[in-house]
Amino acid sequence: MKYVAEFRDAELVKRSAQQIRREVTRPWTLMEICGGQTHAILRYGIDELLPTEIELVHGPGCPVCVTPLEQIDKALALASLPNVIFASYGDMLRVPGSGRDLFSVRAAGGDVRVVYSPLDAVTMARENPDTEVVFFAIGFETTAPANAMSVYQAATLGLKNFSVLVSHVRVPPAMHAILGGEHNRVQGFLAAGHVCAVMGYWEYPPIAEQYRTPIAVTGFEPLDLLRGVLDAVRLLEAGVVKVVNSYGRAVTYEGNRPAQELIKKVFLECDRKWRGIGNIPMSGWGLRPEYAQFDAERRFDVSAIRSEESPICVAGQILQGQLKPPQCPAFGTLCTPQHPLGATMVSSEGACAAYFHYNKAALLSEVSNG
Amino acid sequence: MADVIKTAAIEGMVCPVPLRHAEKIVQGHGSGGKLMQDLIAKTFLAAWDNPILSAGNDAGVIPTQGVARLAISTDAHVVSPLFFPGGDIGRLAVCGTVNDVAMLGAQPLYLTVSFILEEGLDLSTLERVVASMHAAATEAGVQIVAGDTKVVGRGMADGLYISTTGVGLLPEGTAIHGAAAQPGDGVIISGSLGDHGIAVLSARGELGFETELASDVAPLNGLISEMLGASQGIHVLRDPTRGGLATTLNEIVRQSKVGIILKEGTLPIKPAVDAACELLGFDPLYIANEGKLVAVVSREDSSRVLEAMRSHEYGKEAAIIGEVVAEPTGRVLMETLIGSHRVVDVLMGELLPRIC
């Protein structure tokens, strides 16, 4: 495929990895934020190409994984209501709430539909004026513009039967939480290129400065990932703290201004719980008061639902880069994508699912070799 | 891997109880993946187990008093929409069963058909489906010899469902089945992957973009005859339908107690399928095909079989995509373009588009 295949070229990838090997002199721990990057790393075996000095740890950038149990339980309650079409991104159907998932709700008669875009849910509301349509508006800065657009369009169209269950999260507060954490091991960040394509990277220099941690804005193809690693390693080796853009073909400093304005028009920063991590102050977006009529939590009175996670789940440590998936005793045995114990095994972007799908044989042989 | 990861000792940590979906049928039970395999093992095989069923092939082989054995297979067909680019539910119902019988090296001869029709279905729709079934049966050289029809109330079915059962003759000495793959064998695919699944998804109009892809639905018994004429060294034939190539190859490695290594650059995938998968977060290895087969062939006969396949209409884009290895047993691995390896696992439940 044009504009993609070039960035998977085997020869260039090997050369790029050699360059990193030549320049690295000390051990460095880098975190890739985004679950899409974790998957690309394992899918293409980038971790096998890197010198042993570089350890990649996996960040909390999987929207499905970090959506809190409480919001999932609210989704399950909404989807079970009569006369409600509950529309969701596909990944979310498999995430277990307290005892059920959206598949179970659908099998029990709930009208749960997968949409590829939130605007499809708006269309659904227009085509079914006597039915309530609720869209599960989750995700990072990447999905926020389209989710905001669905609310904006519903308002413009004067739709009375459309609402959203919002569970938006933002990357910069999560980086603060990780870098400021007691057990932080991260020395350099690969920032999520797609998030930055929307938001730019003007939010990152203060973070780099505050924690003395260099950041490379990084893409998703093998060559992009290696470029991000190389740039981060160069900064670390030189002792330079700053933010560099290693994904220039998609990201600018300012980002996509109209998208940011639309987000600001519809959403307001708010505290948000992250599954497995807990509350991170001002780490999410909720609806602005002027769009409160589109808030499904108000319309259907599910805001009272409170769910507590098992305090012994290790997904939180995995999402903060303190543990790797195979270090969980349940990984691959009690916990598989078919029977996920935690959200990180559920999503196609979850770190545990990535390890399970792409790397299990290697892990098994290492375990058996001692 | 660069950094060796040790597993932690099991102490103190217990995770929440997982969802097994053991009480109600969910869509994933029909996906062709692990949930469906579990359903077959725990519900059907547990009740009906016998050596013919538990051989786990696309068709059952029945000994007879005469000269040849019978190969029998049955399949229910549901698809939305009923008509899609490249085919329709009727062609699918004939080809699906013909192919399952043919995958044992048998010659498919007869089909029986049963319809479940929804009240209110246009008769002209049914007539189009029936005509399409006739055309497909004629192409495959099989006759439809028995049938049944039931009508259910409006809203109780999605237009129409078709079940077909196929019977074929299996010559003495033919031993093509899922447990026959041997280390050193070549793995051949008859053409491009994922055309049917993406064409049907696109025809549903839910993707937000359109493709010019057509389903590959086709009877493959003619192609198989050519292959069998070219070589005695064909060990396994399978059609990678639901669950895609990945799931089919995993079945073969498990039944044959071998491993398979695929080479990433060799897989034939149309640019439109590749692009649609890239956008939706799907992997073409898990997308359904309805007119493709995977053949496991002895190393010395691989190129001869490949040549025979390429000379047939339904095998023009055939390619050798990997080889059978002794270790790791029960695993399918992919050698990536950059020389690293990854595991290619079975599809778990329902195929879901990714969020971003």
Task: Please characterize this protein's 3D structure.
The complex is a heterodimer of chains A (370) and B (356). In chain A, helix 2 packs parallel to helix 17 and helix 8 crosses helix 13. Chain A has 2 domains: 324 residues, Rossmann fold (3-Layer(aba) Sandwich), CATH 3.40.50; 44 residues, no CATH class. Chain A is α/β, with parallel strands linked by helices and 370 residues long. Chain A contains 17 helices and 11 strands. In chain A, 41% of the residues lie in helices and 19% in strands. The C terminus of chain A is likely disordered. Chain B folds into 2 domains: 113 residues, 60s Ribosomal Protein L30, Chain: A; 158 residues, PurM-like C-terminal domain (Phosphoribosyl-aminoimidazole Synthetase, Chain A, domain 2). The chains are: A alpha/beta (370), B alpha+beta (356). The interface between A and B is large, with 85 and 57 residues.
In total, the number of strands of chain A is 11
By CATH reckoning, the class of the largest domain in chain B would read Alpha Beta
Shape descriptor of chain A reads globular
Q: What is the ordering of alpha helices and beta strands of chain A?
A: HEHHEHHEHEHEHEHEHHEHEHEEHHHH
Range of strand content of chain B: 15-25%
The number of distinct structural domains of chain A comes to 2
* Largest sheet: number of strands, sense, barrel closure of chain A: 6 strands, mixed
CATH topology grouping of the largest domain in chain B: Phosphoribosyl-aminoimidazole Synthetase, Chain A, domain 2
The arrangement of helices and strands of chain B along the chain is HHEEEEHEHEEEHHEHEHEHEEE
The proportion of residues forming helix of chain A, as a percent range, comes to 40-55%
- Detail the poorly predicted runs of chain B: 1-18
Any idea what the CATH architecture of the largest domain in chain B is? Answer: Alpha-Beta Complex
Mean of pLDDT of chain A:
88
Rg of chain B is 21 Å
- Largest sheet: spatial strand order of chain B: 9-11-8-12-10-13-14
Number of helices of chain A: 17
Mean pLDDT of chain B: 87
CATH homologous superfamily title of the largest domain in chain A:
HypD, alpha/beta domain 2
